[in-house]
Amino acid sequence: MQEMAKGSNVTLSALSDNVGSVVVSLGWVSPSGEGDADVSVLLVGSNGKVRGDSDFYFYNNPVASDGSVQLLGKTPTETGDEDRIGFDLTAVPQDVDRMVVAASRYQEARFGELENLTVTLADAVGDPLLRFTVEDADAVSAVIFGELYRRAGEWKFRAVGQGYAAGLAGLATDFGVDVDDDAEPQDAPAGPADDERDDPAPAVEQAAPSLDGVPAPRPPADDAAARKPAARPRTAKKKVILPKAARRSLAENESWREARLFPVSALKSDRDRETRATSVLLSVMAQVPEFGRRLTAGFGAPAGRMETYTEVSLPHGDTPRRPDGVVRVERAGKLWTALVETKTNGNALRSDQVQAYMDIAARRGYEAVITLSNDVALEGSPLVDVRIDGRRKHKVALRHLAWAEVAHQAQMLIRHEGVGNKAHAWLLQELLRYLQHENSGCHGFQNMGPAWVPVRNGIEDETLCQGDPRALDVVESWERLIRQVCLGLGGELGQKVLPVRGSRGGRDPRERRGLLAEQLCCHGRLQAELRIEGAAGVLAVTADLRTGRLRTSLEVPAPEQGYPLSWAKRLVRSLAEAPADLHVETLVEGDAAGPRGTLERLRPEPADLLPKGDGARITGFRLSLLKGMGSGRGNAETGFIRSVDDAVQRFYGTVAVHLDRATPRRTPERQAAPAG
User: Fold this and answer.
1) Contact status, residue 326 vs residue 355, Cβ threshold 8 Å
2) HSE value, Cβ hemisphere, 13 Å, CA-based, for 477
3) pLDDT for 256 beyond 90
4) Rounded CA gap, 427 and 533, in Å?
5) Cβ neighbours for 644, distance < 8 A, ≥ 6 positions apart
6) Count of other CB atoms within 10 angstroms of residue 421
7) pLDDT given at position 145
8) Which residues, listed in sequence order, are joined to residue 121 by a DSSP beta bridge?
9) What is the rounded CA–CA span in Å between residue 254 and residue 111?
10) 3-state DSSP of 143-181
11) What's this model's pTM, rounded to 2 decimal places?
12) CA 271 from chain center: how many Å?
């Protein structure tokens, strides 16, 4: 991978033969675990300005209608968070001279609070080609990381590293975007009447990309005068209000079951489940362009006409192979092809099967092999080991999708972002119901593995020794579980939910997991932190295997102004609907422990949260819920996986949702300032 210096440039075709589509990733590390940033892209003409407001892609306008740009969202990595952008370079309009890749921080946050600001670029098969580290971003709230630009018919990348003190709005304005920087969030309609709220039709109208603040497509020149001007892009983030009541059923009693497009009652074997799940998913991908594109853009697929197939027979030695599915995308007469291998019901992927499909794809010139299973892939810990023949010029990408990721993307589209029409929304709703049905076999990660019971028993009777490899297996399963919890909660909320990578995030993945396994052996605890967009703080989850209890907690910083008694009263008042057994602890400077008590006891006497005596400065409050954790390794009612998911959902829904976000500080003046 080529390391780039500020101001340098490189021709992409000199680094790889597979640069028809590329993925640009922006990454950073937040030492506190609470820092975040948002990516944006501007398509700029030869005059240095956007052709129109619709050339500005950011969190309120994430996808280009021609597929040339798609914000793919955030994903946790071993070094922090990574926000990815897919570019289909073959679809970029000819009058676009360059594409500016930037990131911004919301409200008063500055990039100096983040570490390891990097941009990487990978080709269509996922091979990283270049990396650039921004060294000098301090008191700026927006940074141009780099830009893709044309020269003599070739695409090149330039490392920029320029900062803006005025944030996203100031950056966009400099490139000619007419920004409506109203800081007030725009609420979507609260929803239709109670008896219609489960109808997909109104949901499409509420969440469609024509909401205020999202630039409408640029109208044709001869028709522009007859239409209303497009709404200016709104850089203030939106709040989406979801319907909370289900549609009134017309069934006579609970024994009546609504007819479904994808029934599951006839599924009797794992083979039946794999065949049905593959066909259901691939057919919806082909019929709902927004959904199909979202699942394949990160795999290097172009934006084009998609067709999907199942049970295709392909020659392979003496015995033909039958992959579970095939995805083909056509654009400008060129084909992109991926073979699909599916597993359901917790069955593991087989290395020999995947290896055979990789060999077939390489010989036939296909671009990718996609594996689908309930397991969640972790960086540095592949689900299957395959051998790559370095003598072959044609490269094949091996990609993995967890069923939880598929359900997450369906939830985000139909509940929060919107799709093209009512029929598409209905298809996605039926897919989601199928995936979530107990008989589909697509429930996601659902087994902590064979090491779970012996490790737990070893911790309880204090016989687990440091260095036991089974502890490492449990740590990997815990990390997969937390990733899945983030996907589920994020899909429900329509917000980014990511596991936090703290100061140890820069370690090698195996070294970091080895350290966590040692801590598990010594202290008997599994720990994780979740950053939820818009929450008052980081949600911490601790599973204490010695006591068999789960703790979910969140620390709320003390306000910068006011009196401690007012803080305590305001906190208790905001938690009026929280559970009575919520533990509240006052955090004070130094090593001293502050007052603590249950919410039930503190409601009549908030002053009990104040430290006794003088001189103890309150720094914040810690809110915690405790519950017993499941003992089983699986996802049954008494299983550990179910108990962790329930604990996180309960804490967010009954505690975190009632807390105010951190109060923003004074808005800075809008002015551009170079980062260096």
Assistant:
1) no
2) 23
3) no
4) 28
5) 481, 485, 541, 543, 550, 629
6) 13
7) 93
8) 24, 130
9) 55
10) EEEEEEEEECCEEEEEEEEEEECCHHHHHHHHCCCCCEC
11) 0.78
12) 30
Are residues 300 and 336 in contact, defined by beta-carbon separation less than 8 angstroms?
A: yes
- Does 175 score more than 80 pLDDT? yes
> What residues have CB less than 8 Å from 103, skipping those under 6 apart?
26, 37, 38, 39, 40, 83, 142, 143, 145
Q: 168: helix, coil or strand?
A: helix
Q: Positive or negative CA dihedral for 255, 258, 264, 265?
A: positive
DSSP label at residue 416: I
- Secondary structure (DSSP) of 66-125: TSSEEEEEEEEETTEEEEEEEEEGGGS-TT--EEEEEEE--TT--GGGSEEEEEEEE-TT
As a dihedral over the C-alpha atoms of residue 533, residue 535, residue 538, residue 544, rounded to 10 degrees, the angle is -110
Of the candidates 52, 515, 442, which has an alpha carbon nearest to the alpha carbon of residue 280? 442
Length of the chain: 676
Query: What is residue 27's three-state secondary structure?
Result: strand
Lookup: tokens for 98:
């360059």
At 33 the pLDDT is: 67
Provide the token pair at 51: 């052709």
Contact assessment for residue 126 and residue 300, using Cβ atoms and an 8 Å cutoff: yes
> Cα separation of 431 and 263, whole Å?
10
**What are the CA-CA distances from residue 359 to residues 224, 335, 368, 401 (Å)?**
52, 19, 11, 20
DSSP assignment letter at 150: E
Question: Considering only CA atoms, which of 309, 300, 197, 295 is closest in space to residue 246?
Answer: 197
Q: Distance between terminal CA atoms of the chain?
A: 25
What tokens were used for 97?
């001279």
Which 3 state secondary structure label does DSSP give 133? strand
Question: Considering only CA atoms, which of 225, 271, 247, 204 is closest in space to residue 422?
Answer: 204
Beta bridge pairs of residue 131 = 3, 120
Structure tokens at 472: 């490492």
Is the distance from CB of 618 to CB of 586 less than 8 angstroms?
yes
Tokens at residue 176, please?
Answer: 């000619």
User: Contact 327/338 with Cβ under 8 angstroms?
Assistant: yes
CB atoms within 10 A of CB 580: 11
Predicted confidence at residue 486, as pLDDT, reads 92
Amino acid at 428: L
The predicted model gives 163-178 an average pLDDT of: 83
Confidence at 543, pLDDT banded by 50, 70, 90: very high
Residue tagged 């985000």 (tokens): 412
Q: Is residue 241 classed exposed, middle or buried when 0-12, 13-18 and 19+ CB atoms within 10 A define those classes?
A: exposed
506 φ/ψ angles, rounded to the nearest 5 degrees: -80, -5
